[in-house]
Amino acid sequence: MDPRDPGSARQLATDLVDFLRPVAARVAAIRTLSSGKVNVLRHLARQERASGADLAEAIGVSAQAISLVTKELQELGYLERLPDPSDRRRSWFVLTDAGRERLTSEMAVSSGWLEQVIGQRLSEEECRELAAVIPLLHRLVSGAEE
Length: 146
What we know:
146 residues, single chain, mainly alpha, HTH-type_Bedaq_tolerance, three-stranded antiparallel beta sheet
C-alpha cells in the first residue's frame, strides 16, 4: 500500500478511523468524566498552568465551551483560577491536588482496560509490533496540529 496514492491513503485513513472509533467509545464509556474534561486536566498536568484561550486551542474547542468545562471543573474542585499578577485581565487555570488525583484515576481506568485486552489477546511479537506503531501515530497527530 503506497500512502502517496490517494486511494491507498484514503483506505488507510478509513480503516484507522473505523478501528479507533470503537476504542475511543469504549474508553469514554469507562471514564466518569467527559473526554473534554479529561483533556483539560491532562493539558494542565503537562503545562502546569494555562489560560482559557490556551486550553481552548489545545483541546480544539470554542472559548464558550472551555468556559463551561473550566467552570464545572472548578466546581468539582479539580482546578483553580488564579489572577495573573502582571495583567489583571488575564487569569490562569491550575490543576489542584484533587484534579491530579482524579486525572490519575481516570487514566488508570481506561488504560487498565486496554492493558487487560492487550495482555489477553496479543502475543509478545504482536505487542512489539503495536509498540512500533505508536511513534507513527504520534507523528500523525503532531502533524495534524500544525
